Amino acid sequence: MTELLNWVDLGPVDNIPLQGARTYQTETDRIAVFRTVDGEVFALVDRCPHKDGPLAQGIVHGHFVTCPLHNMVFSLETGEAQGAEDGCARKVESRIVDGKVRIGLTSSQMGAINAG
Amino acid sequence: MTKIPASKDPALLQGRRPRLVVIGNGMAGMRTVEELLTRAPGKYDITVFGAEPRVNYNRIMLSPLLSGEKNFDDIVINGQDWYEENGITLQSGDPVVDIDRANKTVTAESGLAVSYDRLLLATGSMPIVIPIAGKDLPGVVTFRDVDDVDVMLKAAESGGRAVVIGGGLLGLEAAVGLQARGMKVTVLHLAGHVMERQLDASAGYLLQQELGRRGIEVITEADTREITGDEHVTGVWLKDGRHLDASLVVMAVGIRPNGWLADRAGLSVERGIVVDDFMTTSDPAVKAVGECVQHRGQCYGLVAPLFEMAKSCADHLAELESDGYPGSVTSTKLKVTGVDVFSAGDFSGGDEVEEIVFRDAGRGIYKRIVLEEGRIKGAVLYGDTADGAWYFQMLKDATDVGELRDTLAFGQAFAGGSVGNPRDAVAALPDDAEICGCNGICKGTIVAAINEQGLSSLDDVRAHTKASASCGSCSGLVENLLAVTLGGEFEADAAKPICPCTDHDHDTVRRLIKAQGLKSMAAVMQALEWKTADGCHSCRPALNYYLLAAWPGDYVDHGASRFINERVHANIQKDGTYSVVPRMWGGLTNPKELRALADVADKFDIPTMKVTGGQRIDLLGVKKEDLPAVWADLNAAGMVSGHAYGKSLRTVKTCVGQEWCRFGTQMSMSMGVELEQMTWGSWMPHKFKMAVSGCPRNCAEATIKDFGVIATEGGWDLHVGGNGGMHVRATELLCKVKTREEVKEYCCAFIQLYREEARYLERTAPWIERVGLKHVQERVVDDADNRAALYVRFLKSQETSQRDPWAERVKESVDAHEFSFLQAAE
Asked: A33–B822: do the CB atoms touch at under 8 Å?
């Protein structure tokens, strides 16, 4: 089942530092938006599945981020924990359109106000 | 074969040991003495005169000394104890000025006269100084001894441009070393391409390209007219009218044999001191070895022939039968990290010879082998020199390579039909293949030593055979030999790589950053062949630290390679909020600061306030977006960041000391405040804590700190290497000092040594356990010059690092993106 996504424009891609991340607060979730060394943009819900670590605060390397609390490494492409660890951070769809970052949120992520 | 006549030494007739006087304390002279001691220990009373005020060191390691890959201790061949153990009298810093052959006496500058029965001249060579105006100005140096290196290092401290005159082996090594030390370097070379005596034009071109990529400018066909300057060198005029600014000029245009002393004594001297195959001069009582001699019309400036001469001379002095020294065929390597250049024999070409040339432009590889009548006459290799030893062996043996001709350029692995495994290649070498060119050690000798003496490490092999003990470029070959000989028992003592992104260990990376002048994260990853696009959370913070330590004030800190705590200058907590710890100098505070803290806690709903183990107040539970406002209020009350989150100086804990305590012997609070104000803001491999106790009751618990100070009746005890943590370790006593000024100087020197030598994330305790307290004491306590230099380097780096990161983020909006959310566009 494919849920219909609401594409939210988060402004110029340059607002996010290379090898870094920023966050976007929705009614229900905080979304971490990452920009990797090759200029690509990825988004995950800003909580690691291990102890709710704020992934946006981690070190970004390749297409991975290392959680700042306990150094678990997650794929930015899938949200999957790497190595021997289990768990998956929630992936959020993202794309760059005309130099601007857009993320695709479900109605429930948009929260009560927008979902209405 | 020549038989030595039985000794007619007057000494023996008189019933005493004959006296051997050696003039020259360098590599050739001392190698002769070493060889003599193994052949005939105790045969002579030996006195050595050295012009330099030092023990015997490895002159071919001056380049790594300059670039910072080695320090002086690393390049000492024989220390003071060696002279003492062997009963050798060393007169260093006292050059001989006269030889009286009639009375068999030498006289030194100090007036000291010593009689000899045998005299050995090992006076080496003198750097050539071109006779142009300005050659004697301060700031113009040659590259010949440790004093020259000291001058260059001092010049490099203030940056600026260095001009190196001479693009030969020595000149290029000087250029690369100075560039590694942060100078802008231009090389002036008279010929059409660099290293023209060792390389043909093609290889010279590739080398010049490589130097250019490293930021070293090379001007060929550059004829120097004049060196300019009044009190100090300011630049160089070329004959074509160009002028180059320079704060340092290095003349490295060549060397000439130093034969003036011999000449004055009436010995036969042409280009060098003339010797026969037994290294005997025109006076049978006088021998000569090394760069000062001329043998069969040849003078040598490389180490391998000197060592061969030393053997032959020692045989003769020990009165053993020998064939004498037949002369040497030499090969050359450039000792610049990451540049592989090899040449041997005659590669000048011509009608009589055939040439095999192999070029791989993509990989930057060039090989040229010159053949004459089916035998190798010369070889030049650039970019891939792995087969240098193989070609050189066939050249010396005059091997008929007719059958190999078609595949010769592809090297030994291909010619031998085996795959390119370096161990197989070593295994395939014949026993008489030379492994260590400097010392002339063959494979068979090394294998025999490994088997017979049970050697199991590179150091063992060095100690027992001298193989790889000089320039070290054959270390890899020796390790492969160990592996082949010992089979599964041998494991190269390869240190652990930093992380899976690289095969290099911490120490290697650190060394190469300096040696190759790598100044950015990207440069390090590119040059050292990182396997990932941009590293990982393990290697990036380490590289960031090493770059910062190597180029303080120059390298720009890479925020994205810092852990979040150091990026936002607060401690992340389990719920994603942060804790904030302002500095309280020496643990002291006052009503104004306490009020500010209370107000901040009220204003931002900070749930927890806690006194830390280091006597500071921690505000826990601050939201990330509130951090700048919290800092602004604390800054307004005069408080700055306590770096409680950083790999840096954390706290200086104190007791109340003589200021209040009835037992206190010294003022510990003010000492703590001074130490903290001097060292705050400094970056470290790991967190660093200090404490000052006012008396030996040690209420500040200084004996579990990285640097602990305990006041005594007469002064201060300085302790190092303690920590709490999982493995509690008490400090060891570094030394005792008398004054407050000394406490501060030793403290900074210790920190600086730790910063320069420890691996990232290694606290002082494991570091000291690894290198030994003695190592630290030798550098910080025993060597006052080194301590002063460390102290200066620490203070220098503090000039740029002692800034409050909170104020920068509040007032200058540094990293503003960290503290605000992304907003959706309308």
From this structure: yes
Please give the Cα distance from B509 to B175 (Å, whole number).
21
Three-state SS for B612? coil
pLDDT tens-digit map of A9-62: 999 999 999 999 999 999 888 999 999 999 999 999 999 998 999 999 999 999
Q: Do B825 and A100 touch (CB under 8 A)?
A: yes
Average pLDDT rounded to a whole number, residues B804-809: 94
Please give the residue of chain B at the shortest CA–CA distance from A19: B560
- Region B457-477 average pLDDT: 78
8 Å CB contact of B822 and A64: no
Residue A65 zone, left/alpha/beta (φ > 0; ψ -120 to 50; rest): beta
3-state secondary structure of B132: coil
What is the C-alpha separation between B690 and B708, in angstroms, rounded?
A: 6
Please classify residue B3 by burial: count the beta carbons closer than 10 Å to its beta carbon, then call 0-12 exposed, 13-18 middle and 19+ buried: exposed
Work out the average pLDDT over B175-185.
91
**Residues in chain B within 8 Å Cβ distance of A9:** 824-825
In this predicted model, which residue has the larger pLDDT, B449 or B746?
B746
Question: Is the Cβ of B561 closer than 8 Å to some Cβ of chain A?
Answer: yes
> How far does the CA of residue B568 sit from the closest CA of chain A (Å)?
9
pLDDT the model gives residue B421: 60
B576-598: average pLDDT: 96
**Looking at the predicted structure, is the pLDDT value of residue B756 above 70?**
yes
The SS3 of residue B312 is helix
Q: Which residues on adjacent β-strands are paired with residue B810?
A: none
B409 Cβ neighbours under 8 A, 6+ residues apart: B356, B357, B358, B367, B369
Place of tokens 């020796």: B478
B721 three-class SS: coil
Distance (Å) from the alpha carbon of B579 to chain A's nearest alpha carbon: 14
Cβ neighbors of A97 (< 8 A, separation 6 or more) are none
Mean of per-residue pLDDT scores for chain B: 89
HSE-CB for B824 with a 13 A CA cutoff: 16
Helix count and strand count (H, E) for chain B: 29, 38
- The pLDDT of residue B716 is 96
Q: Residue A55: which of A69, A38, A41 has the closest Cα?
A: A69
**Burial of B693: CB neighbours in 10 Å, binned 0-12, 13-18, 19+:** buried
Written as one string, the DSSP assignment of B520-569 is SHHHHHHHTT-SSSS--TTHHHHHHHHHHHHSTTTSPP-GGGS-HHHHHT
Within 13 Å and on the Cβ side, how many CA atoms surround B59? 26
B8 contacts chain A (CB < 8 A):
no
3-class secondary structure, A22: strand
For the record, the structure tokens of B105 come out as 């006496």
pLDDT digits (tens, 9 = 90+) for B484-510: 888 766 665 556 789 889 888 898 899
Asked if residue B12 has pLDDT above 70, the reply is no
| Residue A26 at interface with chain B, using a CB cutoff of 8 Å | no
Is A111 a residue whose pLDDT tops 70?
Answer: no
Residue A54 touches partner B, C-beta closer than 8 Å: yes
Reported as a pLDDT band with limits 50, 70 and 90, residue B415 is low
Q: Which residue has the tokens 């602004």?
A: B632
What's the distance, Cα to Cα, between the start and end of chain B in Å? 99
* Closest approach of A2 to chain B, Cα-based (Å): 24
CA B307 to chain centre: 24
Shortest distance between the Cα of A107 and any Cα of chain B, in A, equals 16
Residue B3 — very low, low, confident or very high, per pLDDT cuts 50/70/90?
Answer: very low
Interface check for B761 against chain A (CB to CB < 8 A): the answer is no
